[in-house]
């Protein structure tokens, strides 16, 4: 029996940027398996790079089978194992070692976004940009719990501090959002270095291009034209 070709097309890229000495990000692109991810390491150059790479490598080796709920359960279990490994390793290190994670799983017409931290998942549909993920950061917490306006929350000295990530707690808590996809949908997974470098209108303009490769080229050309103080990573997925 001939396997059906994947309806998904994607492109991925990761850059160190103009200031950082090391790239602590890692990206995963498995269109045939319907799995993509961006991980943004934390805890210092070596520790952050190892954390993000460990997560991506585990997801790369994951044998995904069954329908979307089954694949989601397999992915969650895989990430829990990675979390335990990083959490135990941190007890022997000088400080915490972990990574943000945003992933997209697709099976048939349905997809699910899964995340911990402030790496994001966006959807471009019908000429509009939607942020599907919700940051796990102090900045977002100040907005949600204390009613601060985004401009006020962004001025807090610890605004970018993470409230959730892979490897920083004994048990990993992941958020997820499942949706029905439509032909022509474009998804963007990216680290905070990229989404903080560009305005939403820039993201939408890039995602509106006809090919995932063209969208990636546009996103990085614009981000690298700016200060690029952080690592930059993105995956564009098109149905």
TrEMBL record:
Signal peptide (UniProt feature, chain positions): none
MF terms (GO), sorted A to Z: protein serine/threonine phosphatase activity
Residues of the PPM-type phosphatase domain: 9-239
Short name of one Pfam family: PP2C_2
InterPro entries: PP2C (IPR015655), PPM-type-like_dom_sf (IPR036457), PPM-type_phosphatase-like_dom (IPR001932)
Protein name per Swiss-Prot or TrEMBL: Serine/threonine-protein phosphatase
Organism for this UniProt entry: Azotobacter chroococcum
Origin organism lineage: Bacteria, Pseudomonadati, Pseudomonadota, Gammaproteobacteria, Pseudomonadales
């Amino acid at each position: 029996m001939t396997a059906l070709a994947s309806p998904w097309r994607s492109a991925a890229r990761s850059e160190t940027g103009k200031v950082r000495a090391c790239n602590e990000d890692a990206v995963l692109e498995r269109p045939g398996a319907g799995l993509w991810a961006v991980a943004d390491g934390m805890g210092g150059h070596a520790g952050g790079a190892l954390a993000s790479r460990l997560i991506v490598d585990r997801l790369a080796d994951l044998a995904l089978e069954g329908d979307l709920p089954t694949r989601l359960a397999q992915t969650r279990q895989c990430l829990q194992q990675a979390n335990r490994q990083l959490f135990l390793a941190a007890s022997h290190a000088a400080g915490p070692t972990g990574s943000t994670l945003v992933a997209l799983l697709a099976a048939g017409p349905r997809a699910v976004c899964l995340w911990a931290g402030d790496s994001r998942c966006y959807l471009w549909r019908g000429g509009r940009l939607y942020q599907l993920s919700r940051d796990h950061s102090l900045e977002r917490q100040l907005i949600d719990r204390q009613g601060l306006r985004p401009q006020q929350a962004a001025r807090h000295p610890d605004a970018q501090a993470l409230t959730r990530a892979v490897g920083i707690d004994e048990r990993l808590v992941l958020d997820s959002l499942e949706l029905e996809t439509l032909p022509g949908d474009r998804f963007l997974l990216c680290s905070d270095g990229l989404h903080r470098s560009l305005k939403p209108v820039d993201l939408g303009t890039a995602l509106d291009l006809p090919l995932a490769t063209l969208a990636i080229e546009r996103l990085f050309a614009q981000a690298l034209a700016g200060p690029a103080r952080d690592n930059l990573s993105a995956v564009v997925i098109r149905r």
